């Protein structure tokens, strides 16, 4: 299997598949790129007789779940208001919502782009447990958008 040939044959189809699910061109492009990044890492382990289209769509479904979660978690700056520039002041927004440890995890995952495997190893949990923890923290923040909004109005 040749990566370039697979990309030429399937990239547009995978993009369309992602776009149909996300209704966001930028996110669909990101998801498509991630699917082919995974392919580039795994191409040597895929059986020569494997149905590459099925493999790509299956990978795209997994990636879409992650992209869909990111899309749901986007809160526009208009909703929150002006956030102070200093990171110590930004941390103050979440003092009543997250513990220091929770804030650090969220910052490292979303701001610093830390790998989930590294975060889970540092916190002595599985990657699945860390995903669940991050999901619960996102819900905690979502439920407290009014507090965040009020903090930024001070």
Rg estimate, integer Å: 19 Å
Biggest sheet layout: none
Number of helices: 9
Strand content: under 5%
Arithmetic mean of pLDDT:
76
Overall form: elongated
The class by helix and strand makeup works out as mainly alpha
Estimated helix fraction: over 70%
Query: How many individual β-strands?
Result: 0
User: Uncertain spans, ≥5 residues at pLDDT below 50?
Assistant: 72-91
What letter string, H or E per element, gives the SSE order? HHHHHHHHH
Measured between the Cα atoms of the first and last residue, the distance is 59 Å
Textual characterization of the structure:
- The structure is a single chain.
- Mean pLDDT is 76; it is low at 72-91.
- With 154 residues, the chain is mainly alpha-helical.
- Helices cover 74% and strands 0% of the residues.
- It is elongated and about 55 Å long.
- The protein contains 9 helices and no strands.
Brief sketch in words of this structure:
The chain is mostly helical and 154 residues long. The chain has helices at residues 3-22, 25-42, 52-72, 77-80, 87-93, 100-111, 116-122, 127-143, 145-152.
Question: Secondary-structure blueprint of this entry?
Answer:
Elements: H1 3-22, H2 25-42, H3 52-72, H4 77-80, H5 87-93, H6 100-111, H7 116-122, H8 127-143, H9 145-152
Helix pairs in contact: 1-2, 1-3, 2-3, 7-8
